[in-house]
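3.2 Worked example (two chains)
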Amino acid sequence: MAGSVHKEGSTWYYMLELGKDQQGKRKRKKKRGFKTKREALKELAEAETALNKGVYVEDDQLTLGEYLQFWLKHYAKINTAERTYEGYCSMIHAHIIPALGHFKLSKLTPFHLQSYYAEKLKDGRYDGKGGLSARTVKHHHRLISKALKDAVKWQKIIRNVAEVVDPPKPKKVEINPLSVNEIKRLLQVAYQSTQYYPIIFTAIHTGMRRGELLGLCWKDVDLSNGIIRVRQTLQMIVGTGIIFKEPKSGKGRTVTMTTALINMLQNHKIQQNKSKLAFGDIYQDYGLVFTQGNGKYIQPSELTKAFKKMVNEARVTKVRFHDLRHTHATLLLQQNIHAKVVSERLGHSTIGITLDTYSHVLPNMQKEAAQKFDFLLDEMSKKA
């Protein structure tokens, strides 16, 4: 089967031979609108290749918006975590469909996507106060690329145009660890004015994520051996509520506690047991380490809000709760704790992530290593 290219007025079209139908009649596909003969020949060649491989798609009326709705329901809903699915829905309904949803799936081009990314960087926020970050737009690109990759696999389109588009390059997130003196001031404020002192203390001493701390159960805390087993994370899903899932890395880990942390948690457990007695039957016991006074879950957003107030009151570097994790890692690396150990405590999937994230600590460590090497050579020369 062969196709052909023809001129029609000022434009070109191709005619693709599709064989014969059940009645023995010839089937053809005609596609118009090419500005040059070369463009028509190129797309004809792609169509012929797809036809020969058995992946040619005849129906080109499906819009990107219609396809993404299908993709959400039949792929994302089934194959991704609830929070991931929630994020996909938000990106698709609030951003991608309004801007690109009207395009036919088969007519979507790299130019359309590149223009979309540029527009979102310039003016993509809900409140109209500027553009989205490069990191956020790159998330859009990854979603679109994955959805189009599935469209190719399901024989809805011939190629994934997102593969030839360059998404924006996010700037590296600046790490803002607290100093030892700042940690002391923050803990003092947390101890005096809030119920969150135990969770702030634990975050600093372990580097655990917010959700991991909020989902930590007493059954996973071995005070006798000084070990915490990180097995789940607590998340708040809109429309669903509180859920528990595996840690971010997809697997649990073990974190050895400091002596100070063991002592604090022992006292915290005593106080929690007193609360249970005080509340009696209305105490909601989920077995969690960190709870409200009546045993209920601590909402992630409430902890974040309270932490912001603590930071302001303590007059320390403006940090997020997640920066307590960065603080823990930075202090360990500054004490020459091996990056592999730090990586294991943080639950990073590879040591490379740890080294890349905390590269700001390495220059000082390299300077110290060079000084130690000089000292070693001097000692060796004295003995020679």
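3.2.1 Second chain
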Amino acid sequence: MHTWAIISQKGGQGKTTLATGFAVEAARDGAAVVILDTDDRQGTASYWENARATDDVTVVNTGIAVLPLNLAKAEKGQADLVIIDTPANSRDIATEAARAADFVLIPVVPRAFDIASVLQTVKQIKQEGTPFAVVLSQVKHTGSEADDTAASFVDMGVVVLATRLHDRKDFSNAVGLGQAATEYDPKGKAAAELRAAFDEVKRLSDFATKRAKRGAT
């Protein structure tokens, strides 16, 4: 079983959009996928599952105290990929999620006040020693903020995905319908960005989605 955690102490960075989008892509590739929704206040991933027309992705609500138990249940249930969707402003959950994960993805909206907050998340993940990368999300179609933000993280020795998720309505529209952008408009630009980001994270985390590969080893 492979575990990804999507972490940011700042709200509104697109964590659940990534968690659900990646889950759909992994399931489409034949993986058994579980999202652990650790946000007991909003539970956006759980709302997404309720709106979803298919049961190819399982969402489990979990608090910090039972996170290890739910990870063990997922492994016992032969999950191939667990994605931990974390809330904002919860250092304890972020720490536990980073410790449990094989790889952490930190979404960042390239705005000055968001970047300052995310720097604390980067520091926290570095302390845990879990491999991680930053992905720029809700990127505006004009301006140099994304380039400047990416350069700043690279200067700090942080891996930044080459793929950027731009500010596109397809992302939010899809989540509201219990879908991923790749389902909402498979040929759209948001879908292409989501697929590219998923492929990058697979490569960086050394995750093979095909269940046949696991069974053949």
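3.3 Remarks
The chain has a mean pLDDT of 89.
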